[in-house]
Amino acid sequence: MRIDHPVRRIGGREIDFSRRLVVMAIVNRTPDSFYDRGATFALDAAIAAGMDAAAAGAEIVDVGGVPFAPGPALPVADEIARIVPVVEALSPLVAVSVDTFHPEVARAAIEAGAAIVNDTTGLHDPRMADVVADSDATVVIAHSLAAPRTQHPLPHYDDVVRDVADFLRARRDLALSRGVPPERIVLDPGHDLNKSTAQTLELTRRFGELTELGGVLLVALSNKDFIGESLDRERGDRLAGSLAAAAWCAAHGARIFRAHNVRETVDATRMIEAIEGWRDPAYQRHNVRPEGND
Asked: How confident is the model at residue 33 (pLDDT cuts 50, 70, 90)?
């Protein structure tokens, strides 16, 4: 498995992705979010959720003001008003990511302390790369086909893994051409984004092929519909499936895990690190001679 530039500096901290798995918690300041249905729309609730996530072990908190799902446009000023106060409150405590496809929102968030811009539209607006290039922020480039907040009915791929890889390679080249350094680019294959369950399962099954891109890979698969449709589970009952999919992707090269269930995902990733020999056990008592008893 290849990771170019494995040591990254994000939010003032150095992370060696050749031997680290990182959890990115999700905080949505929207009344119609996919998973929590507005539970963290209020400012105090959003800040508290971010603090709780950091305390549970998340090293990144991803703050969004607009859902990915199709819907009416939100004025940029309103999106900034939702996101920036949360960034200001959380950035002294944890690396903060902003989930946005608007360059103006990204710029305001970076000025407020955000360390990552998470663009789920894959730089649909190339000016996003310019904003990132003019900062110290990292950009997450996700694969998705539709214009922002629009439907893409019956998506077709000749070969879903090859097509996703080609898209990510092209959008990374765009970012590089605009001056974004390679060590500040993360790639996300976009589980469920403009993809059917069968397509997302194939993308997951062949996830290891994406490591040929040489980038740090992020997966955002927590509680998604491909898990619900695979297991016949409603949105609130997909944790086991989410952890299984995350573990599979970790074993095949994923390094950042965007998740709703932070504590459980942190435990899963830390267990994988321990199995790999990247992390020492918290303690050892089982079948170990107590200290001082020779």
From this structure: low
Q: Could you list the active site residues? A: 224, 258
User: What are the structural domain ranges in the chain?
Assistant: 7-276
For residue 294, pLDDT over 60 is answered with no
Length of the chain: 294
The residue behind tokens 């119609």 is 32
Strands 116-119 and 216-219 come out as unpaired
CB 104 within 8 A of CB 128: no
Which is nearest to 256 in space by CA: 293, 215, 206, 285? 215
Which CATH class, in words, describes the domain spanning 7-276? Answer: alpha beta
Question: Which pLDDT score, from 0 to 100, does residue 292 have?
Answer: 58
Phi-psi category of residue 290: left, alpha or beta, with phi > 0 → left and psi -120 to 50 → alpha? beta
Mean pLDDT of 87-97: 98
173's CB contacts (< 8 A; 6+ apart) are none
Which tens digits make up the pLDDT trace of 137-150? 999 999 999 888 77
Are 57 and 96 contacting, i.e. CB atoms less than 8 angstroms apart?
no
What contacts 245, CB < 8 A, 6 or more positions away? 191, 204, 219, 221, 227
Place of tokens 């199995």: 275
Calpha distance 291→273 (Å, rounded): 26
* Residue in this structure with the two tokens 């008592």, named with its chain if needed: 285
Rounded to 5°, the CA angle 57-101-198 comes to 75
Express each pLDDT in 240-266 by its tens digit. Answer: 999 999 999 999 999 999 999 999 999
